[in-house]
Amino acid sequence: MRHSSRAVVAALATATAKAASLADLCTVSNVQAALPANGTLLGLDLLPDTVTAGAVYNASTGGGMGRTTSGTTYSYCNVTVSYTHTGKGDVIPLKYAFPQPSDFHNRFYIAGGGGYSLSSDATGGLAYGAASGATSAGYDAFNYDFMSKVLYGNGSINWDGTYAFAYTALGELTKIGKPLTQSFYGLNSTKVYTYFEGCSDGGREGMSQVQRWGDEYDGVVAGAPAFRFAHQQVLHVYPALVEALSDYYPPPCALDKIVNATIAACDPLDGRTDGVISRTDLCMLNFNLSSIIGDSYYCAAQNSSSLGFGFSKRQTGGGPGSQSSSAPEQNGTITAQDVAVAQAVYDGLKDSNGKQAYLSWQIGSDLGDADPTYNNETAAWELNIPSTGGEYITKFIQLLDLDNLPGLNNVTYDTLVEWINIGMIRYADSMQTTLPDLTTFQTSGAKLLHYHGESDPSIPAASSVHYWQSVRSIMYPDLSDDEALEALSDWYQFYLIPGAAHCGSNSLQPGPYPQDNMVTIIDWVENGVKPSRLNATVSSGDYSGEVQQLCQWPTRPLWSGNSSGFDCVDDEASIDSWTYTFNAFKLQPIY
Ligand SMILES: *[C@@H]1O[C@H](CO)[C@@H](O)[C@H](O)[C@H]1NC(C)=O
Ligand SMILES: *[C@@H]1O[C@H](CO)[C@@H](O)[C@H](O)[C@H]1NC(C)=O
Ligand SMILES: *[C@@H]1O[C@H](CO)[C@@H](O)[C@H](O)[C@H]1NC(C)=O
Ligand SMILES: *[C@@H]1O[C@H](CO)[C@@H](O)[C@H](O)[C@H]1NC(C)=O
Ligand SMILES: *[C@@H]1O[C@H](CO)[C@@H](O)[C@H](O)[C@H]1NC(C)=O
Ligand SMILES: *[C@@H]1O[C@H](CO)[C@@H](O)[C@H](O)[C@H]1NC(C)=O
Ligand SMILES: *[C@@H]1O[C@H](CO)[C@@H](O)[C@H](O)[C@H]1NC(C)=O
Ligand SMILES: *[C@@H]1O[C@H](CO)[C@@H](O)[C@H](O)[C@H]1NC(C)=O
Ligand SMILES: *[C@@H]1O[C@H](CO)[C@@H](O)[C@H](O)[C@H]1NC(C)=O
Ligand SMILES: *[C@@H]1O[C@H](CO)[C@@H](O)[C@H](O)[C@H]1NC(C)=O
Ligand SMILES: *[C@@H]1O[C@H](CO)[C@@H](O)[C@H](O)[C@H]1NC(C)=O
Ligand SMILES: *[C@@H]1O[C@H](CO)[C@@H](O)[C@H](O)[C@H]1NC(C)=O
User: What percentage of the chain exceeds 70 in pLDDT?
Assistant: First the structure.
């Protein structure tokens, strides 16, 4: 049987892949014959008996990553196959989707997930003429997020799952998927361009591939990466601790008002009044939140449910980070206490000696993590610990199978620093995902497009800046700033998206958002068209439809006049405001 299917592959190859039909290729025997033979991928043994293959015609799928597919349909070969790690006896199911031959453009694509989930959808590449895949990662990742799998029980960490979620599962998916794709279409050694695209944890996953599987990819698009994982997750609890320690819980309407008033005050600092703070650095340097004290606010009563912090891709009705709440009518004026909470949150976590432990959300970002809960019995605002952070602390740090911290009794800023330190050390080579030596990726000729919403209220924009700075200093220690910048931008470019929120546009700031990152990276990888700006389109407000060419970091936008576009300027003071040393930790530096 294997013999005859190899013959089929060879026959198809001579006929060229494009001439074969989907039905010709999409057979169990063709897939079995196309599997990498045992021994060719060190440590990864494919299990031919597990192969299924079935053609799917005219499916309205394959959108992925926020793309709308309005009316577009795809025909593809739906393949499942499992592999095992040599000698281990585990069985890890994979899914692949191979576009019909006439749509295939010699590409392989992996989409990132979100929250604590890997993507379970293998069709994300169809829109790009790419074969693509998804992995169950050894912990049934098609059906569970990793948060529900990190502990076998109290005190007992699922390390296989931790490494799989952190980076190994996706790397193996790609490692197997590339030769499988070549053989599936009978391409022999024709280059298959390989891409990863993701945002939030998907952005972290993308960075994990850049760091750990650098020679497997040609292009990676990573948005708002949830990396520096211990810092990032514990940060979600920091605003609640600010409130607990001051025993003051500001009404959410007051926090919303502070954000709105900050946006109004700082919007013009970038040279154009358009509802967008394109320069949060100028806002940080020039605006004093105290000026909002005394402003009045009003919010009508409401019942609301939120999906949490953009961390809940797979949960549409409850799950980690999602909350439903009801709030009464709120009517008052901003107090010094309200401003003190907002200021402390924007200043970021420091230890009891005033040493910086982590950066924070940019001023003007929504303060959702600081929203307290309304107790309708006592008619008072109370402690609310976002489970995005609380559940990380209970499960990853305390190793207790609890969905959230029960409270913050006896917790101090030093406690948060200690939790971060434990997480940073324990998961240093798995979840932390901040290795700055990208030599393998760079020398293989791959390209990295990294972006982050400047007003992201979940994953601070400065956390991406800090990583870019780490990579530059590790990769080019001996070059001058200008030389390092030029060398780096040949293969790694970073863009802040003015006003944007977490992996999307911001209802509070009608700014631009990039829509065609994959077009940009494909052009860079396959045609050598190196970007110097990033296309982004405004989708609401007075400037709806405007296409902006965003500035590449570290240059910053400055509008000249109210209509004539912006320049990308160098501003040392601005860059300094984005630069941190986390000296609360003994281990240095923190990348
Ligand atoms: C693949 O290799 C075979 C054997 O070397 C050759 O006959 C065939 O033309 C090649 N096919 C393609 C698509 O390059
Ligand atoms: C590859 O090895 C696995 C065991 O590691 C075995 O189950 C499988 O049948 C082998 N595949 C082939 C094609 O021999
Ligand atoms: C898929 O759509 C095409 C174009 O509309 C049509 O010709 C074809 O018959 C459809 N195939 C199936 C299996 O429905
Ligand atoms: C793909 O194949 C798997 C395994 O046979 C099956 O469970 C799944 O429903 C198929 N997907 C589609 C879209 O047909
Ligand atoms: C803040 O601004 C948004 C719209 O930009 C508005 O919907 C909301 O009601 C405002 N909140 C407060 C408290 O002013
Ligand atoms: C902001 O203004 C207040 C009140 O005028 C002042 O006490 C505080 O020092 C100012 N903050 C900064 C950072 O200048
Ligand atoms: C909120 O829900 C409660 C209970 O369902 C209902 O009584 C109340 O009228 C709702 N309030 C608003 C503002 O919708
Ligand atoms: C808010 O409260 C003030 C004083 O109690 C009152 O004058 C005002 O009408 C209230 N505003 C709203 C919108 O209810
Ligand atoms: C208070 O909130 C609880 C929980 O949401 C709800 O069950 C209860 O009906 C509310 N009571 C009042 C008086 O609104
Ligand atoms: C795990 O620890 C938590 C917190 O101490 C406890 O509530 C729970 O019962 C424990 N679970 C088991 C299965 O022992
Ligand atoms: C807080 O600390 C005090 C004094 O060390 C101790 O008695 C108490 O049990 C602690 N409370 C909690 C909830 O850990
Ligand atoms: C950028 O936007 C311009 C104007 O809409 C468009 O012509 C161009 O094709 C876009 N570039 C990319 C890479 O999408």
Answer: 91
| Residue 304 a catalytic site member | no
CA of 259 to the centre of ligand 3 (A): 51
Gap between the Cα atoms of 125 and 289, Å rounded:
45
Residue identifier of the C-alpha nearest atom 12 of ligand 10: 154
Contacts of 428 (CB under 8 A, 6+ apart): none
d(CA 99, CA 414): 53
> What is the residue-wise DSSP string for 454-489?
TT-SSS-HHHHHHHHHHHHHHH-TTS-HHHHHHHHH
- How many other CB atoms sit within 10 Å of the CB of residue 153? 9
List pLDDT tens digits, range 37-55. 999 999 999 999 999 999 9
Q: 180 pLDDT band (50/70/90 cuts)?
A: very high
Nearest CA to ligand 4 atom 1: 78
pTM over 0.85: yes
Q: Which of 334, 427, 328 is nearest to 373 (CA)?
A: 328
60/7: higher pLDDT: 60
Q: Please write the tens of the pLDDT for every residue from 115-152.
A: 999 999 999 999 999 999 999 999 999 999 999 999 99
Nearest to 584 by CA among 352, 238, 423, 427: 352
200 as an active site residue: the answer is yes
Q: Which of 132, 183, 200, 387 is flagged as catalytic?
A: 200
Dihedral angle computed from the Cα positions of residues 522, 526, 528 and 532, in that order, rounded to the nearest 10 degrees: 0
Does any ligand 11 atom lie closer than 6 A to the CB of residue 406? Answer: no
C-alpha 327 – ligand 7 centre gap (Å): 10
Would you state the structure tokens that stand for residue 474, as one six-digit string? Answer: 């590790």
Question: Measured between alpha carbons, how far is 244 from 249 in angstroms, rounded to an integer?
Answer: 8
pLDDT digits (tens, 9 = 90+) for 390-448: 999 999 999 999 999 999 999 999 999 999 999 999 999 999 999 999 999 999 999 99
Q: Using 50, 70 and 90 to split pLDDT, how confident is the model at 204?
A: very high
In 3-state terms, the chain is what percent helix, strand and coil (to 5)? 35, 20, 45
Q: Is 253 in the pocket of ligand 5 (CB under 6 A)?
A: yes
| Residue 106 beta carbon below 6 angstroms from any ligand 1 atom | no
Which residues lie with the beta carbon below 6 Å from any ligand 3 atom? Answer: 57-58
Comparing CA positions, the residue from 241, 243, 210, 230 lying closest to residue 112 is: 210
What is the position in ligand 5's atom list of the atom closest to the CA of 257? 13
Nearest CA to ligand 10 atom 9: 401
For the chain, which residues make up each domain, given as ranges?
1-189, 232-428
- Is 121 designated active site? no
Question: Which residue has its alpha carbon closest to ligand 1 atom 11?
Answer: 13
CA nearest neighbour of 275 among 534, 543, 546: 543
In angstroms, the first-to-last Cα distance of the chain is: 53
Ligand 9 mean position, distance from CA 410 (Å): 29
